Amino acid sequence: GSGIPQVEGLLLGELKINWWSTLWRKFISGILAIGSGLMLGREGPSIQLGASIGQGVASYKRLSHNQSKGLIASGAAAGLSAAFNAPLAGVMFVLEEVYHSISPFVWVGALTGASVSDFVSTVLFGQTPVLSIGHLSVFPVQLYGLLLVFGIILGLFGFLYQKFLLFSLNCYSKIRFPKYLYGIVPFILVIPIGILWPNLLGGGNNLILSLKETPMTMKMIIVILLVRFVFSMISYGSGLPGGIFLPILTLGALSGVLMAHIFVYLHLMSANY
Fold first, then answer.
1. Domain extents for the chain?
2. What angle do CA 118, 114, 44 make, to 5 degrees?
3. What is the pLDDT of residues 118-136, one digit of tens each?
4. Would you tell me how many other CB atoms lie within 10 Å of the CB of residue 125?
5. Following CA atoms 127, 131, 137, 140 in sequence, which dihedral angle do they give, to the nearest 10 degrees?
6. Taking 90 as the threshold, does the pLDDT of residue 143 lie above it?
7. What is the pTM of this model?
């Protein structure tokens, strides 16, 4: 899976994980799963890789349980920061989703780890932020009511996404062959997508960036949204190493384009926005 539940279990003391075997296996298997074009994100594996390194350093230094938790949380923030070149997102994610509390030790450690990780990936390796969208027109305050409507619709959509995700896990559990072979299913089913629409493959960051320049009809947006939605379920439900964070961002962006078309069609806003 993504690796985030395992990091949470490790921090809660409910799981014992061998950090070294997790590190190299997740690294190789994550590259194979995500690099093949399956609709998975790299944030989950990156978080677990960072947390594993934090766990390894804590083990080497023979730190206490609380100090180890701080290093694991810092490593998780650094992993997300390196994956997206977004250090603040890494810190906030750890505080909200992984650690579930704000303490000065975790806050400062996560911020330091994420900042240095971003510095290394940006300055030494020349990476740029994954979702560098660039200049956008300022959205008028008088149209903020549309954002409320959009937020309600996306909230319902997110609820449905969770329900279907759990349903996909149940569907895989009914397949009559060993669990370690579940990964074959998305690899086979994604072949027609790769042949017909190769631009739809992967986590979706390139697709998000292309939405601004590529004009699309409403019908085309709906088709892409449905394909991405279904294959996100198929890819993640198989248990292959990969997250759903980037695929969810892609679905959100596609939903934004769809709602924008509807708002413009109803003359509720200008196409500039």
1. 4-124, 141-265
2. 95
3. 999 988 888 877 787 777 7
4. 9
5. -140
6. yes
7. 0.87
**CB distance 87 to 81 below 8 Å:** yes
DSSP code of residue 77: H
CB contact at 8 A, 37 and 188: no
Tell me the Cα Rg of the chain. Answer: 20
The answer to whether 197 and 243 are in contact (CB under 8 A) is: no
- Nearest Cα neighbor of 70 from 16, 117, 106, 19 is 106
* pLDDT score of 204: 85
Distance CA 42, CA 228 (A): 16
Mark residue 100 as left, alpha or beta (left: phi above 0; alpha: psi -120 to 50; beta: remaining): left
Going by C-alpha positions, the residue among 272, 216, 262, 207 that lies closest to residue 37 is 207
> Three-state DSSP class for 64?
coil
Per-residue pLDDT at 157: 94
5-13: long-range contacts (C-beta < 8 A, 24 or more apart)? 6/48, 7/47, 7/48, 7/51, 7/72, 7/76, 7/98, 8/97, 8/98, 10/51, 10/55, 10/72, 11/69, 11/72, 11/73, 11/98, 11/99, 13/65
**Distance of alpha carbon 9 from its chain centroid, rounded?**
19
Amino acid at 99: Y
